[in-house]
Amino acid sequence: MKNETDNFVNFLRKKMTSKVVTLVGSDSVSDPRDRLVNKSKVCIKPKTTKEVSIILKEANQRGIQLVPVGGSTGLVGGQIAESDHQVSISLEKMNAIHFSEEDNLVTVQAGAVLADIKKVTSDAGRFFPLSIASEGSCQIGGNLATNAGGLNVLRYGSIRDLCLGIEAVLPNGNIVSSMKALTKNNMGFDIKSLLIGSEGTLAVITGAVLKTYPLPIDPMTAIISINEPAEALNLYNVASNKFGDTLMAFELIKCTGVDFLKKAGFKVRYPFSKRAPWIILIDFDVHVASVNLREEVEKTLCEVFDKNWVNEIVISNSLEQKREFWRMRELIPSANRRIGSLCSNDICVPIKKIPEFIKEADQTLMAISDKIEINCFGHMGDGNLHYNVFPISEESRESLEQYRPEIIKNINNLVRKFSGSISAEHGIGRLKSAELKLYEDPGKFNAMLAIKSAIDPKGILNPGVIFNKGSVKLKQV
Ligand SMILES: Cc1cc2nc3c(=O)[nH]c(=O)nc-3n(C[C@H](O)[C@H](O)[C@H](O)COP(=O)(O)OP(=O)(O)OC[C@H]3O[C@@H](n4cnc5c(N)ncnc54)[C@H](O)[C@@H]3O)c2cc1C
């Protein structure tokens, strides 16, 4: 295999005019949670879609396995090559961003970094709503490949809802271009939607046309102390019934998240006079056309307070204060990484069942071990919880590793019981491929397999991602 990879690399070095082949440094592709190690020794960095096409066609003919990599912030190992005969392909050199004032659309190459796209659009007076804590590193190709979600899904949807057109290269080297900037397009199958969320198993995404929105004018942020998730649900029901479309984010944070910030060395200003057992963070887009709903929102929050549903409410009165509130939420994933979770569960359950789910999951896990603690936080407004399990301070991750499979199995079983999803926004990658087979509807799973086998019969694109080994029947060519 080593010779075949060498021959492939030599072919590319001769064929391509630009310097496309680099040796991968040990830290250039990594797993943010330090569970997997990237074993690829070679990374190809094409500069054009045509080059991507040549690379895939040649790899397909030679049976070389390719692992697409974006900003390497993925949390389920999809970007991590599992053997040294796999070759990474990065689109970091394809990072052009073009904003069109005529139609307020932004056309991007897949290697563009999310924060740069947000900057270009905001400089043009528009808003690209995808907001995730990894936005300084992740690339739009990776965002599309994982159907990234984040903080504003409640109002604007995930990236699938923000993407109008896509360009990609299939494993046989064929270029699929669906870059028409059309809101209505029923010319047969929606290939764009199929490729979004396919985690580099069906195609290498090379470009996209994305929607932008008016910049929200001074959204109002409220941070609220509550005693338990049931109160969060009451509040969510009131806020969404009254303010529906103006709700931009509705986040739930357990106090453990704030404790972890301190433990991990992050300094944040605590907004409450007393320790909050649970925290809710809400963003309201109060300027709708010429109407300012701020007073209406304040009145509603006062009513909620009078009903004793909440302990304390703090409403931001400056941009700096707003940033402080959000900093607390946005730093939690980094604090979690510094502390090191035993397992992280990115799950979705129907919103109305969230309090019941949290109660039952806590009880179930405590019965497995009393040496764990749970840091539960997430985008409650779209049902997405990050239900993450950590060793208590006195214990190490290694000493509790034996409980990991049982914990994961119990959480997944509960998610199934509550009609939820075992992957809300991070995808399946390598880490959840075995679970997908167990927890996905068999009809849907087999349909996905049939699509994979038809588009990538030799299994050269990201083998082991979404479908675990043995699932995909490779064509003997
Ligand atoms: C601190 C932190 C916070 C995060 N918060 C969120 C969050 O709120 N919401 C959320 O959804 N995610 C979140 N994530 C996860 C991660 O940032 C997203 O999954 C992101 O979309 C991955 O983009 P990337 O460019 O880093 O892709 P990578 O990690 O490099 O790759 C991810 C997957 O996409 C594939 N891929 C990458 N580029 C391409 C391409 N051009 N064509 C085809 N396939 C490709 C890879 O093969 C892999 O399977 C967070 C991660 C971190 C570290």
Q: In words, what does this structure look like?
A:
By secondary structure, the chain is α+β, with helices and mostly antiparallel strands. It is 35% helix and 20% strand. A seven-stranded antiparallel sheet has the order 17-12-14-13-19-20-18, with helices on both faces. The protein has a five-stranded antiparallel sheet with strand order 5-6-10-8-9. Strands 1-2-4-3 form a four-stranded mixed sheet, covered by helices on one side. The longest helix is centred in the middle third of the chain and has 15 residues, at 229-243. The chain is globular, with a radius of gyration of 23 Å. Residues 32, 67-75, 78-79, 91, 110, 132-134, 138-139, 141-143, 145-146, 148-150, 199-200, 204-205, 333-334, 425-426, 429, 462, 465 line the site of flavin-adenine dinucleotide (FAD). Flavin-adenine dinucleotide binds next to β3, α4, β10 and α12.
Number of contiguous helices: 17
Give the percentage of residues in beta strands.
Answer: 15-25%
In terms of quaternary structure, the protein is: single chain
Please summarize the sheet with the most strands. 7 strands, antiparallel
Shape: globular
Radius of gyration (Å): 23 Å
Classify the secondary structure makeup into a structural class. Answer: alpha+beta
What is the CATH class name of the largest domain? Alpha Beta
| Fraction of residues in H or I helices | 25-40%
Distinct ligand kinds: flavin-adenine dinucleotide
Number of domains: 4
CATH topology tier name of the largest domain? Uridine Diphospho-n-acetylenolpyruvylglucosamine Reductase, domain 3
How far apart are the first and last residues' alpha carbons, in Å? 17 Å
Report the mean per-residue pLDDT as an integer. Answer: 93
- Tally of extended strands? 20
Low-confidence stretches: none
- Strand line-up of the largest beta sheet: 17-12-14-13-19-20-18
CATH architecture of the largest domain: 2-Layer Sandwich
